[in-house]
Amino acid sequence: MQRPTRILFVxxxxxxxxxxxxxxxxxxxxxxxxxxxxxxxxxxxFAAFDPDLVVCDFRLPTLDGWEALSITRELRPDIxxxxxxxxxxxxxxxxxxxxxxxxxxxxxxxxxxVNLVLQLVGA
Length: 123
Fold this sequence. Notes:
alpha/beta, 5 strands
């Protein structure tokens, strides 16, 4: 039996994480979720949780999205990294791809979010 897909959310909104988790479960993805809100939690999550995918808000009170992407690429250059944010926009989304993100989606667009996640984790 295959283990659940491990998704690390770098996010400060529990509600946003719950909505994403529900959408993924409805799409049939068996997943375990861990949330990190700052740099220490992000670094610890790579050691303890070994995620298959990182989903990151672009703006957090204690961690910038660019920093989260940089830390992720430092620790796990191979892992898919998806920005999910209401503030990223197309221009920053393109920049995110140039900086090594695997994709970006605006918060609230659950259909596109689920499609991207399924594509990135090969489900």
